[in-house]
Specification:
Distance between the termini: 90 Å
Number of strands: 2
Largest sheet: 2 strands, antiparallel
Shape: globular
Number of helices: 19
Strand order of the largest sheet: 1-2
Helix content: over 70%
Length: 450
């Protein structure tokens, strides 16, 4: 058994290193001014992701069937400052193995799909570079033994997501949408960062294995911070407005980020933090309420969207809301299975979205009439006045964007007022040179008399 565990440790290390090697090769070449051909980039991605997928599949199978104990690998200490150690330590259980498998398999599939989709596009190499950056960050989230390493991967995933939203950088709208998403990420990531600091303060370590041993008050505080940190990437209400704007990026990035993996990092983080959530019934109830509110919001808003990508995006958010409900209720296996199945299904749906439109048009022409809408039975149960009010409310996306813009404007005015006050105090405390010279002239006769 020890030999099998050692072999599993080597397999985990190689699975983590392979995307990083591909990223180093491609990024280093671009940094030196050498851009490999599209065919060479595709070969590099296919070879690395295929081998990583085989190793991840073996690890997942061994852990799921009980052939392996949780696999641990420590690649050394990256930073040590006053008792704090940032270790490149990884620990893979069945849940982490599932997410790591989704990472390498779906990133590989999207990479293969993107080769003809982005053929001769000016951002071809940039897309694959960001795809590899995303894969490396997601591997850190899936297998990180410490919350600080998970936070590092969380930031890498957020940065690559924002850059891919702004992929078409010659137009101002995608850049603004990317900045909006990154701004929301940064606001909620403060919760995750404070959770890392708090965990180190209370437990003396950032290892996720220390969560069950925390005092109830400390577990409640850290759990609440982790819930807030998970809200941004999961597009949980009220942080949903970035998601429809993110769909302006390329279809492959929409599939891998907002349909498959990035958005599912939210329930995955809650699953990893389950011992902290279990410290308080109120916190679990809060997770359930947030999930239910998000599912209701995304379902109602998604039904009135006029483009298929936004409709699928809101459908993904609705499913993430359901996963939050499962986590809040303690149904962890159900949440994990739901996460994996939905990631695969939504990736397939987003990648074939253009083909789906052609198929729909063909069916309409063959039938001679439009296709019937789903959910019409439930809609008829709602009174007409209320149905019209809900339609207008959903059409405005629950006014979350307007409320966010109002709040941002208020914060801006407060910060500008503080800046003006700070400048005035600085002007009072810093005497102008003319005043200082006059004061020196007055003091010189007094000094001479002394």
């Amino acid at each position: 058994m020890s030999d099998l565990q050692a072999l599993a440790g080597h397999a985990l290390a190689l699975t983590l290193v392979l995307p990083a090697l591909a990223l180093t090769f491609l990024g280093g070449g671009m940094l030196l001014g050498h851009r490999p051909s599209e065919h060479r980039v595709q070969q590099l991605l296919a070879a690395n992701m295929s081998l990583a997928a085989i190793l991840a599949s073996a690890l997942l199978l061994g852990l799921a069937l009980g052939w392996l104990e949780p696999v641990s690998v420590n690649l050394g200490t990256l930073l040590a400052v006053r008792g704090y150690h940032f270790d490149l330590a990884f620990r893979l259980d069945w849940l982490g193995a599932l997410y790591l498998w989704l990472d390498v398999v779906l990133c590989g599939l999207v990479g293969a799909f993107s080769a003809p989709y982005l053929h001769q596009d000016e951002g071809y190499h940039r897309f694959y570079l960001l795809l590899l950056v995303f894969s490396v960050g997601l591997a850190l989230i899936a297998a990180g033994a410490g919350l600080d390493l998970v936070f590092a991967g969380w930031e890498v995933v957020g940065l690559s997501s924002a850059l891919l939203i702004a992929y078409f950088l010659r137009r101002p709208a995608p850049v603004e949408n990317g900045l909006l998403a990154y701004g929301i990420y940064r606001i909620t990531d403060v919760g995750l960062l404070l959770a890392v600091v708090s965990l180190h303060h209370y437990a003396g370590t950032t290892s996720l294995e220390s969560l069950p041993s925390l005092a109830p008050s400390a577990a409640l505080a850290i759990g609440a911070l982790l819930v807030f940190g998970a809200m941004g990437k999961g597009a949980i209400v009220p942080f949903t407005p970035w998601l429809p704007r993110a769909m302006e990026g390329p279809t492959p990035s929409s599939a891998i980020f907002y349909g498959a993996l990035s958005i599912h990092a939210s329930p995955f983080l809650l699953l990893r933090a389950a011992p902290a959530l279990e410290s308080s019934r109120a916190l679990q109830a809060c997770v359930v309420v947030l999930g239910a509110l998000t599912a209701l919001h995304a379902t109602s808003v998604g039904r009135v969207q006029t483009d298929i990508k936004c409709s699928l995006g809101y459908a993904s958010v609705a499913q993430v809301g359901l996963m939050w409900i499962w986590v809040g209720l303690g149904l962890y296996p159900l949440a994990a299975v739901h996460m994996a199945g939905h990631a695969i299904l939504r990736t397939w749906q987003l990648l074939r979205a253009p083909s789906l439109l052609h198929e729909r048009h063909g069916l309409i022409q063959a039938l001679g009439a439009d296709l019937s809408e789903t959910g019409s039975l439930y809609a008829r149960l709602v009174p007409l006045p209320l149905r019209r009010a809900l339609y207008r409310w959903s059409l405005e996306r629950w006014f979350l964007e307007d409320a966010g813009a109002l709040l941002a404007g208020l914060c801006r005015r407060v910060l500008l007022a503080l800046d003006v006050l700070d400048r005035r105090w600085a002007a009072l405390l810093d005497r102008p040179p003319e005043v200082e010279d006059e004061l020196e002239l007055r003091l010189e006769p007094l000094e001479a008399e002394q």
